[in-house]
Amino acid sequence: NAGVTQTPKFRILKIGQSMTLQCAQDMNHNYMYWYRQDPGMGLKLIYYSVGAGITDKGEVPNGYNVSRSTTEDFPLRLELAAPSQTSVYFCASSYGGLGPTDTQYFGPGTRLTVL
Amino acid sequence: KQEVTQIPAALSVPEGENLVLNCSFTDSAIYNLQWFRQDPGKGLTSLLLIQSSQREQTSGRLNASLDKSSGRSTLYIAASQPGDSATYLCAALLGGGSRLTFGEGTQLTVNP
Question: Which of B59, B75, B79 is nearest to B67 (CA)?
Fold first, then answer.
């Protein structure tokens, strides 16, 4: 299994541009998550999905959109990129939700710079 | 506001030393606490998960403990090795259980 994969690994955007960060998992997990990690900070949840067709906001959803048309894929869309969105973005998945024994599996991350 | 904090932010030790990383959380209504390892340019790897009904978990040279009453968890690494050098993050599933709350991480360097 490839686990959780993310593309691209690096990207530089100009202010106002848009882009989609791709995330895929091959573990047949129901739950998928998008986090951002700013330098020296912990991860903050942007959006999550409990299954195909179902998404919900996390702690910091402003400026982002998501969709979940299949179990495997969970793309994150940035509209009108701003310097405040410069960060490292991680996608994660888990079989169950936030139960007492559920562990999340993380992708390698996408490092995004907005200039 | 629910918070998770980790002290110290960075730690440097000689090879072979036993060490403890600390994690504190503000809500005693905790469902579980996880410790992750993050290598540069890589994602997070889950090391240990402690359920709220447990007091500790062990995996090889790693031992994690959970004290709900004091709002603390510790990650003990025995006989540290240079390969243990990484950033260690703790994450708590706190009261309400809607999301994991992450600490800022402790960057560990083990010197040969």
Answer: B75
H helical segments located in B54-102: none
Query: How far is the alpha carbon of A39 from chain B, nearest alpha carbon, in Å?
Result: 9
Rounded distance between C-alpha atoms, residue A75 and residue A36, angstroms: 14
Chain B environment of A109 (Cβ under 8 Å): 41-43
**Nearest CA to CA, how far is B61 from chain A (Å)?**
20
> For residues B110 and B48, is the Cβ–Cβ distance under 8 A?
no
Quote the tokens at residue A104.
């999340």
Q: What is the pLDDT tens value at each position of chain A, 115 positions in all?
A: 789 999 999 999 999 999 999 999 999 999 999 999 998 788 999 999 999 999 999 999 999 999 999 999 999 999 899 999 999 999 999 987 767 677 889 999 999 999 9
Report chain B residues whose CB lies below 8 A from the CB of A92.
43-44
Angle at B32 between CA B77 and CA B48, to 5 degrees: 30
Which of A36, A57, A104 to probe the B interface (max B CBs under 10 A)? A104
Measured CA to CA, the distance from residue A76 to residue A52 in angstroms comes to 14
Distance in angstroms (rounded) separating the CA atoms of residues A45 and A61? 8
